[in-house]
Amino acid sequence: MCDRLNRDIHKEVLFVLVIIFYSLLVGCSRDASTPPEEGPEVVVDRFYSYISEAKRKGGGSPASAAFKMISSKRSQLVEGQFLEVIRGYPAGFTVTVGKATVTGTQALVDISYKLPSMFDDDYTVNETVALTIDQATNTWLVDFTNETHGMEIAEAKKIEANELARMK
After folding, report:
1. pLDDT tens-digit profile of 32-52?
2. Is the pLDDT of residue 157 over 70?
3. For residue 125, is it within any domain?
4. What is the separation of C-alpha 42 from the centre of its chain, rounded to a whole number of angstroms?
């Protein structure tokens, strides 16, 4: 009788442990960040489209929309400073978005744009734009001042780990 009672208790304890383990497993898989719905290329394209529209139409609304896509943690700019920077962009400013390289919560997106030259031919500038995932909204944010671009991988991972630890 005692052996049977002990086996039943062991089965119940095992059942409870399996349920707890399963709950933890499911909970942890939800915490593992799913990639944002929009890829980094789409975000960069929309960001520079807003800037191009602001240059064409001269309105503050598209520029404000672009400013909201900037990572405030990385780019220490206020909106007035951002507007001053894009005011210096040439008329007809457009960007061609290339491929993205995603590593964890960071991405690098290749872009190119043309600038006027004093020799009558435009010249093409190739750059890379850094983005980070905003954990609160699960969206890509542009590192407009490129604070993270060119970092050593270990340094970028250390910053990423610190940010994730701060969010917990």
Report:
1. 468 899 999 999 999 999 999
2. no
3. yes
4. 11
Domains held by the chain: number: 1
Please tell me which residue, 137 or 30, carries the higher pLDDT value.
Answer: 137
Structural tokens at position 155 = 């340094």
Note the pLDDT of residue 90.
87
Q: What is the CATH number of the domain that holds 75?
A: 3.10.450
Q: Which residue blocks in 58-152 are alpha helix, DSSP H? A: 60-67, 79-87
Counting residues of the chain whose pLDDT is more than 90, the rounded percentage is 44
Other beta carbons within 10 Å of 73: 13
Report the pLDDT value the prediction gives residue 29, as an integer from 0 to 100. 44
The residue written with tokens 């593992």 in the block is 32
User: Domain containing 68: what range?
Assistant: 40-167
Residue 102 sits at φ, ψ, to 5 deg, of -105, 130
CA distance 139 to 142: 10
Token pair for 40: 């980094």
Residues whose CB is less than 8 angstroms from the CB of residue 90 and which lie 6 or more positions away in sequence, other chains included: 55, 115, 116
Check if the beta carbon of residue 142 is closer than 8 Å to that of residue 67: no
Instruction: Quote the pTM value.
Output: 0.68
Rounded-to-integer distance, Cα 105 and Cα 19, Å: 31
